[in-house]
Structure formats: C-alpha cells, structure tokens
Amino acid sequence: MDRSESLLTAQGAQAAQTAQTAGPPATEAAAAPPAYPPGAARVPEPTPPPADPPGRDPRWARPALLGLLAATGLLYLWGLGASGWGNAFYSAAVQAGSQSWEAFFYGSSDAANSITVDKTPASLWLMALSVRLFGLSSWSILVPQALLGVASVGVLYSTVRRWYGPAAGLLAGAVLALTPVATLMFRFNNPDALLVFLLVAAAYATVRAVETASARWLALTGTLVGLGFLTKMLQAFLVIPVFAGVYLLAAPTGPGRRIRHLLLAGLAVVVSAGWWVAIVELVPASARPYIGGSQHNSILELTLGYNGLGRITGDEVGSVGGGGRPGGGGGGPFSGQAGLLRMFDTEVGGQISWLLPAALILLVAGLWLAGRAPRTDRTRAGLLLWGGWLLVTGLIFSFMSGIFHAYYTVALAPAIGGIVGIGVTLLWRAARTAPVPAPAGVEPTGPVPPAGVAPTGPVPPAGVAPTGPVPPAGVTPADGGSAPAGPVRRRRPTAAFAGRWRGPVATLSLTGTLAVTTWWSWHLLGRSPEWYPWLRTTVLVTGLAVAALLLLLSLLPRTTPAPVTKELASGGGAGADANSLITPAWRGRRAGRWLGAVVVGVGLAVGLAGPAAYALQTAATPHTGAIPSAGPFVAGGFGPGGRGGFPGGRMPGGGSGEFPGFPGGGNGQFPGFPGGGTGAFPGLPGGQDGGSNGTGAVPDFPGGGQPPAMPGGQNGGTGQNGGTGQNGGTGQNGGTGQNGGTGPDGGTGQNGGTGPDGGSRGQRGGGMGGLLDAREPSAEMTALLTADADDYTWVAATVGSNNASGYQLATGEPVMPIGGFNGSDPSPTLAQFQRYVADGRVHYFIGGGGFRADGGSDASGQIAAWVAQTFTATTVDGVTVYDLSSGRRG
Question: Is residue 223 within a helix (H) or strand (E), and if so which, with residue range?
Fold first, then answer.
C-alpha cells in the first residue's frame, strides 16, 4: 500500500513529497486493527514542500505583486532629476565611457584615459550604455539605478515566495523597498544599486540549486557573485561562505556531489570576476589609464589594499582616513565608532536598523520552530541563508576599521526583508494553528507519541512495526499484538513537547517582535525631534496597542485547518481546503477571522511606518556628493542627504552648509572640528593663532601648516598665506581655502579662495570643487574651457576627481583629475605633467580641490607648486586659473 507523507509550507500551501513503502495487500491492511484511536490529533510539520506552480498562488498574489512593484517604481523614480549628477565622481566616468570605449572598459574618469575610478567598472557600464542610448542627462544616469531597485524587490519576492508563499514574499519585498538607505541608493549612482541586485539574484539561484541539487543553478550563483566583484570588489564575496554553507547543508544529494558542485561554483566566481582583472594586469601600464586608488598602478593592489583588507584593518595608504577605530584614528567625521552596536548608532541607525531587532528575534524564533528537522529542511535552510547574509555582512561592517560609510548598509536590506517576511508568516501561522482532530476513517499521520500526547506523522501499514515512542497503555499496537502489561516506560517527548508549545512561543515571539520594533522606531524618530513629532507618539501608542491585541487574540479558539489526507498531499480533490490554509482563520468565526486580519495588517503598518516616513523624505530630497545620507537631520549624527550628502539645515555644534559642523566647529563645506577653524576642509589657513604659514594646512604643500583635524584657535589670527576672521579665515561662511583667505599669487577664489601657492593642502587654492562634491562652473568659465578644446587632449587639469568632474560634466570635454579621488595617487607625476604641458596637451590648470592624508603620493602638491611658480594666475569668475599654453612668467 502506498503511503504519502504530507508537509505544509509556512503559508499552508499544498504540495506532496511521497515515500514508497512496501506492505501487505490492502485487504489485509483493512482487516488489521487501527494503529491509533479515531479522532487523534496531529501537529503540523514546519518543513515546506517544493514550490507550488505559479498558477496555484491565491488570486490576490499577482495583483499584490504588481502593486508592490508599481509603488516601488513610483518611490524610486519620482522627482529623480532633482538630484542632478548625483555623485559627480561616477557621473563624469559615465560621461567618459559614453564617449570612449576604452574609457568604458577601464572605468576611466575622463575620456582621455588619464586615470580610472577607484572601483571596478561594472556599475558604470550599465549607466554608460544608457547615456549612449538616450544622451547625457541626470535621468539617463539615474533611471537604470531605480530600475535595479524595482528588479531587486521583484527578485526578492520570487526568492522568498518559492519556499514560504506569496504573503512572505510580498512582506520581504516591501521591507526592502521601504528601507531608507535602499530608497537612497536606488535613486543614486553609486555602485551599490547593481551590487544589491546581483546578490539578491545570486540568493535566488542558490535557492533553486538547493531544491534539486542543481550544479547549473549553483554555477549561476557563482557567476552573479563574480559580477558583483566587478561592481564593488571584495564586498560581493561576503555572502560566499553563507551561500556555500547553505548548499552544503541542505542540498538533497550526497556529500561528494555537493562538494564537487561547490568547486564548480568557485570556478564560476573566478572566471566571471577574474577575466577583467587579468586583462588589466596584462596590458602594459603605458597602454592603459592609471588605476585610481592604488599607489603602484595595480588593480590587485587596489583589490587587496585600499578596497580590500585595508577596509578591515584601517591600513589604507592614500585614503582620507579609516573607520572609527577605538582610541582615535580613522575617518571619524563620516564613519562612526567601530563596534558591535555600530549598526544602531546615530549615523547608521536611521539608515538600516528600523527592522534589524525584529529580524534578529524572528531569526531565532524561526530556527526554534524548525527544530530537529531533517538536513534538507527548507524552513531552516532559508532562515540560514538570509540570517547568515545578515550576520556575516553586518558584523564585518560593524567592526571594520577602514573607511566605512552608512550607505554601505544597503547590502543588509534584502537579508532583513527576507527574514522579516519568512519569520512573520511562520510565527503567525504557528500562533493561530491548533492540533487538528482527524475525522473518523481518515488515517492520522506521524509516529506514535507517549500517552497523552497527540500523535503525529504517517500511519505504518498493517504488519509493519511502528516507529517512535512506545504507544499508550491499552492501545493495540499496529502488528495486532496485545498491549504491554503494567506501566509503560515513557521516553522524553521532545518533538511533542515542542509541538505543544509552538503556539504560545510563536504568539509571544510575534508580540515581542512588534513591541521591540515599536519601541525602536520611537527611539529612532526621537533622534529627529523637530521632524513630525506626532509620528513618534502615534507609532508608539498604536504599536503597543496592537501588541496587546495579539496577546488577546491568542486566547480565542485557534485555527482548525482541514485534515491533510493522502488526496490533499497528492494535489487532488482538496484544492479549496489547501487555499483556505494560506491565511489562518477561525472556522465558522467570521468576526474573529476579520479581526485577526485587521490586527496583523495594522501591526505590519506600524512596523513599517517609521522606515516608510524616512523613505518618503529621502525620495523628496535631492542628493548629491560623495557621501549621501537618508532621512531627515539626526541629532548627534549626519543629517539628511543633499548637497555633499547633507542638505539643508544647521548641523550639531553650530556648523552649517554642505557638511556638518562638529562640536565647537564653524561653517563650510566640511566640518569644523573641536575649537577649529572653518573652510572646505578642516584646519585651513588661519587656524590656531594664525601661525607664520597659515596653520591648518597640510605639511609639504604651499602654504604649509599642520595636518587637518587639529584644534585651532577661536579667533584664528593671521598667517603669511592664511586669512583672517573669527574662526580663522574669511569668505562666504567665514572659511578659508575655497571659501576663505588669499595667497600671495592667487588673488581670491570663487568665494575668497586662494591660489595654489597660497592655499592649503585641504583645498589647494581658489578652485570651486572639493574632496566630496563638485559644483557647476559659471558660463564664463565654461566658455573659457571650451574655446579651442579640439587642440588639446585635456582642456584643463585640477587636483582631485570631484573638482575635475564638475568642469568635465559642464563642458563635455576631458579634464585631468590630478591625484585621483583624494589627490593622493601619483598620477601623473611632476615629470609626466611637465611633459604633457611641453607637448601642448593641457590647456589650463584650475586651482583648488583635493586632499592628502594617511600617506600616499605628494605628486599633486608638487604639480600645484610648480604651476604657481611657473605660470601667471588669472581669475575667472572668482576661480584661479593658469593658462599653461602661454601664461609663463617672464
């Protein structure tokens, strides 16, 4: 007689996993006494079956999915053009790639291929193709990023839905879409948008591989992760141990085959990631652009150093500073303090952590529900996949001592969404499902439990000895013998004990999750006390009330789902009953059913209210610069992401402008540090007591001075090359450098800036850009640069990629970014630049831009000094310019 073992998904969707067991003829089985008493109860199994065909989803699933994708598209696309070029550093490279296929391949900052960006170029390829098709505009650059966000939500839905049903998939997708940092990055042109999409797609391929032990799907996983490396280098590899571990644990095949499949997937990673690296390393350095971010023109150095282990250890030569290493050091102004709670601090918390406590609680509760399931159990496998992604990536982000920015945490959003979607649906069904009395004549399933415990699992055929604990006293065993005389020795009922407590534990877990999420949302909203203060109170009161209602609902009669018979398990004759399991309900209690649905819906709305509000604010705010930030101004942390990543409003410590003013700081593009001066970067000319060379500048650069982030005097004084003013300088905001003092050769900058010989290392003269942002040049400057542009390889050169990008995007002509992003790369050297000038390849040198810290090359400083000593400065619309074609000093 055939015997089917039925397993239910977390949504209760029907499917079959059938085990064939030989037994006596059916007539003999019918004559045998029943193995269990009629009316025995069973406890549903937690393990999901193979996925249902798409057509078996409930009717509401597809419209709900389309609605989710449409709403996500609206959120990510509305008003997208307001952000302009977004991160001009990458936009300039996209422009270059749309003009030159060589620049496209290498990811060059300019079409003349002087230097690349400091990342692998896959994300630039997609945007450059869009620009080639639709022309250069903010929309053609940013729309592909938004579409990647919509696609990520759809793929996450499909991944979660395969094992846990459409409701879990929809919730997971909604969590991803409404995460504030996801809204930020899918409306921005950093590489993170493509990286997230590729990793979510790799998770989907892993799920498909686990289902059937498929080598092809696992190889696709490796290929997608390899493409992730070409997007943002080693960050893509953080998920490899998780995906490999889940497949090694749960794939339904032998260990040898699983290991061979993993080796094949590893080969796919190497090939898909390594082909570009191999080409770059094999091409002679003289035949390709310089590799930005490296000190020795090597992509391997960039991979393992500046963008690799250096991010973990903080040893990043040529960077602007590492992460928040305890005891000082690191990139303090924009990285936060490294440690276990970094994801919850004032800088990062509002970006990603709204549902992070909920995800951790649901992960533990879901794994408890899975219990001692078989190795291939999918409930556990899915939780381990998303939970491993969250824990591994989150812990590395928390403890890395190198450069860390809050927007990196967008890589955690899919994992949080997956866990929340799976966990909520698992716990809700467990909380509302009670043991089911089997009708007379229907064989209950499962092994025989001890006395007084409801039996579970399939009934063995007559003549086959039952497995499991000893049957209760007085019950006839399946082989027709008599019950053992005397008292029965009971075994520890582990599974039955867990089954008995599934409902209460699930209810308490759901209630606790909602209460903790409500409190944490209330806390995060309190960091922006002036921003819709009523929302904070509403979330707290409503959330706690819904949590209390969930406890009250647990006292009502639980769901009585349809008995799982062999016909239901095989998919025949019980379709209506299977669909009724998708949303647990009280049979015959319509009022209770609707009340439960309303309470759960309100609970989900409350849990998502905080991140949704932040996401809407983020979508309504333009974002530009190198370090964007989601949400409104946060006390004690970075503010909303706008110009330079922080638009609008005054920052803590009284600073205002594009970047926060820190405690005791002043105004300007970058923070004033404790007691410090002001300006485009900390510690510009006119620092503590002035000094003879304009303190606050960086050593070994014209204007001299001290390294940045050194305390300065409140009244500044004067310096040989510095400015004057209450906070150490003059200018639009009382700053120096770009917005401040003057130098002996430079006249004034755009807002009182200095020339190359009179500025600081922080801003290097009277240019208009800076380390983290690019500004639009005036029409007069644009006309100057475009005149006779065809006669030169580069219409201009300036220190720093962001400084150069503003001019390049405005003119459409190549502008050489001396020193790369930070101005600390040896590209070009002084000798190379002098040769370019002698050959007539560079027309103008524009003062300003760049910054040097943590070592690196001083070539940019040497070039700036040589230009100031050799050529005559002029001022165009407040910007210091040197004509390298005819402006030599007599």
Answer: helix 215-232
Name the amino acid, one letter, at 329: G
Orientation of helix 494-526 relative to helix 533-553, angle to 10°:
160
CA of residue 284 relative to chain centroid, distance:
36
The torsion region of residue 632 among left (phi > 0), alpha (psi -120 to 50) and beta comes to beta
DSSP state of 107: T
At 824, the amino acid letter reads S
The model carries a pTM of 0.75
Note the helical H segments in 284-435. Answer: 299-304, 310-313, 349-352, 356-370, 378-399, 413-432
pLDDT (tens digit, 9 = 90+) per residue, 251-291? 999 999 999 999 999 999 999 999 999 999 999 999 999 99
Can you tell me the distance from the alpha carbon of 48 to that of 13, in angstroms, rounded to the nearest whole number?
A: 9
Instruction: For residue 877, list its beta bridge partners.
Output: none
**Residue of 244, 162, 150, 175 whose CA lies nearest to 206:** 244
Higher pLDDT, 661 or 405: 405
User: In what side-by-side order are the strands of the sheet with 815-818?
Assistant: 815-818, 794-799, 842-846, 879-883, 873-876
pLDDT on residue 157: 98
Tell me the C-alpha to C-alpha distance, in Å, between residue 768 and each of 199, 239, 649, 673, 808.
38, 41, 22, 22, 13
* Mean of the per-residue pLDDT values of the chain: 75
Which residues, in sequence order, are CB contacts of 625 under 8 Å at separation 6+?
87, 641, 642, 643, 644, 645, 646, 658, 772, 773
Give residues with Cβ within 8 angstroms of 118, minimum separation 6.
Answer: 292, 293, 302, 306, 307, 820, 821
CA 756 to chain centre: 39
User: Distance (Å, rounded) from C-alpha 731 to C-alpha 746?
Assistant: 15
- The span from the CA of 234 to the CA of 311, in Å, is 10
**What is the rounded distance in angstroms from the CA atom of residue 586 to the CA atom of residue 849?**
68
| pLDDT of amino acid 413 | 98
* Amino acid letter for position 693: N
First CA to last CA distance, the chain? 106
CA angle 535, 540, 541 (to 5 degrees): 100
Instruction: Name the DSSP class of 3.
Output: E
CA atoms within 13 A on the CB side of 318: 27
Distance from C-alpha of 430 to C-alpha of 449, rounded to nearest angstrom: 20
- What pLDDT is recorded for position 636? 62
3-state secondary structure labels for all residues of 762-815: CCCCCCCCCCCCCCCCCHHHHHHHHCCHHHCCEEEEEECHHHHHHHHHHHCCCE
Distance (Å, whole) CA 199 – CA 389: 10
φ/ψ (deg, to 5) at 8: -105, 145
Q: Higher confidence at residue 219 or residue 747?
A: 219
DSSP 198-217: HHHHHHHHHHHHHHHT-HHH
Sequence-separated (6 or more) residues with CB below 8 Å from residue 485: none
Rounded mean pLDDT of 715-735?
A: 37
Q: Can you tell me which residue has the tokens 């909920």?
A: 358
pLDDT in tens, 830-889: 999 999 999 999 999 998 765 555 578 899 999 999 999 999 999 998 899 999 998 666
What is the C-alpha to C-alpha distance for residues 195 and 199, in angstroms, rounded to an integer? 6
481-527 pLDDT, tens per residue? 444 444 544 444 455 555 677 788 888 999 999 999 999 999 999 99
Across residues 529-554, what is the average pLDDT?
Answer: 91
How far apart, in whole angstroms, are the C-alpha atoms of residue 610 and residue 518?
9
Q: What pLDDT, on the 0 to 100 scale, is given for residue 661?
A: 34
Backbone angles phi, psi at 743, to 5 degrees: -125, 165
Give yes or no for a contact between 871 and 889, defined as CB atoms under 8 angstroms apart: yes
Tokens of 428: 């809700």
> Any idea which residue has 């570009």 for tokens?
276
Query: Reduced to 3 states, what is the DSSP secondary structure of residue 650?
Result: strand
d(CA 638, CA 631): 10
